[in-house]
Amino acid sequence: MEVVEGVADVADVGEFVERVDAIGERHGVTVQVFDARYVVDRAHLERAVELATRAHSRNDAIAEDFGVEILLYAAGRRQINRALEMGVSEGETPVVAAVVSDEADGDPTASEDDTETGAAADLCELLPPTETLGEYDPERVRAFFDVTDTELAATDGTLADAVRERVALLVVEK
What we know:
Number of strands: 3
Helix content: 40-55%
CATH superfamily: CGI121/TPRKB
């Protein structure tokens, strides 16, 4: 998995998604872009990708589209419409993108250009690079993931730990 951080200035969400999808198709990868204000750290994305990949390989996925599956795990939700809140929206937004090889549909004859690295480089042309991971909005994250004061007070863990737990629990909720 490659991670690309930047700022997206999105005039039209549909057009932006088409451009991102075209990069993924060109390189034979899945690219899922998130509003970085909801992503607590790289481990959050890594766990979501790991669990989505496992579900996809076991034919136990919630969504048909692998990118949507990654989004559902990252959001800790089974409902696509609720998970989409974590995606990009119109306007200038800090974003983070996960670029993941399409191993399940992999083409063993793909050239070296058809890699996560190549797609990440193309994304950098679309997203002016800016560090965004770790710059999440705690109140936004707590509201989205339903993390209460009581929950945080009852554990030695951090808000990031609680979010990563939500990601892991999606498997249990199936």
